């Protein structure tokens, strides 16, 4: 198996995301090693040795995806026997040419604390999601960007948190419970914020599987209960013209981006 | 101002991360537009028109960062008048050559639901973080990968959630309160899991600022209280040999990756 090293003088998250995207097109397994915060020559040299050792041991030339700003440290890594893919610098030169502006590597702060406002927006959104999770309170819905609705365990909470962390968006979520569904009516707090509602639904078998893992052999996780709740909730979404998506075959990222696309709500942080 | 378009047939998250990393080296502001799920020729053509309109209106040639797998759709986008940067394909050919294996673009599922196990690991970690947030319960610490400790509002919760969502790691967090700090002793539940403890601390002025935004002019947000709590907690960290880091000047990503680096805990998902 080939080993892939993600090497950076920062968090290496950019190198990881980049590497995943490229390697996901190859029908091979890879051994993955992340090496963040390579900030001095000693550490760079140690990583170089580790890369070369990996080559000797496996007999397969390692791949190195790196985003190292300092050229001395970068040169140490690229002098290893791996094949090195320089994700940043490959694009910096043509962009410099297009813009007629020199890049200043020192200002590179991709996953650093770019600015206080950005940071506060994000943390406020996380706090908002937590305080308004699972219908805990409905008093702060005026401040919501989006209110996710759906049955218990259809994916509302992870989606709320992802939208908060990644995009700084304030997402409340409200679980439809038996009573709401029997009456087929929106609770009052939701009616007042109808334009913010977005529904999630899920395949009944998948829902049952998820609920079984939480609470095996209960009424809550019974197949009939899952089917009943989802049938009712989808009827309610249609009656009330609430946009909704099926989460069954989508990752949290896909669900989040689809919601932004459908609602047109802009990212608060980029 | 130049406009940057992030265009993808998926979530466009890879294109965004990539674009941010490269553009963060340029001392210029950019107008950013994300266009996800470009899945058919009609949509691709509409985006092409939008890109060209943007050029005409601003007089500045737009930048397009794209990760489009389908070559027909990709050709529509790259026939726009923008400068297009093809992040995936730039690297695919040399990697094919290194590996001696052809890429199969159809299997590209960077931010899709790669597999059920991956998905469950992540959602379980998010649930774990929520259920074990803020010392709510200490009964499930046996299942924790890490237990973050520190005073209220030093960054424990966002870090726990980020580690769960990004890396599938199970993180509990426990706030040191007055009583713990007066006695300068670890609560029993923490003692039993001492090897999992990781401390966060923060600059007293920054802590005060954060607490003021939550609860202005309270004892909780008084400068003296913040200084007292942080002084005590850092003494406790040292006495008990708990590794800790200062969160003041670091993003959630940086804190998370530093914790993984210091503890050596492997990512559960990549």
UniProtKB/TrEMBL annotation, chains A, B:
Q: Which residues form a coiled coil?
A: none
* Biological role: Bifunctional serine/threonine kinase and phosphorylase involved in the regulation of the phosphoenolpyruvate synthase (PEPS) by catalyzing its phosphorylation/dephosphorylation.
Q: Quote the protein name from its UniProt record.
A: Putative phosphoenolpyruvate synthase regulatory protein
Top-rank taxon, per record: Bacteria
Decide whether keyword Nucleotide-binding is in the record: yes
Which InterPro entries does the record match to this protein? Kinase-pyrophosphorylase (IPR005177), PSRP (IPR026530)
Main enzyme class: transferase
Keyword field = Kinase, Nucleotide-binding, Pyruvate, Serine/threonine-protein kinase, Transferase
EC id: 2.7.11.33, 2.7.4.28
Which residues take part in binding ADP? 150-157
PANTHER family, per this entry? PYRUVATE, PHOSPHATE DIKINASE REGULATORY PROTEIN 1, CHLOROPLASTIC
Please tell me whether the keyword Cell membrane is annotated for this protein: no
Q: Which GO terms describe its molecular function?
A: transferase activity
Catalyzes what? [pyruvate, water dikinase]-phosphate + phosphate + H(+) = [pyruvate, water dikinase] + diphosphate; [pyruvate, water dikinase] + ADP = [pyruvate, water dikinase]-phosphate + AMP + H(+)
Q: Which family does it belong to?
A: Belongs to the pyruvate, phosphate/water dikinase regulatory protein family. PSRP subfamily.
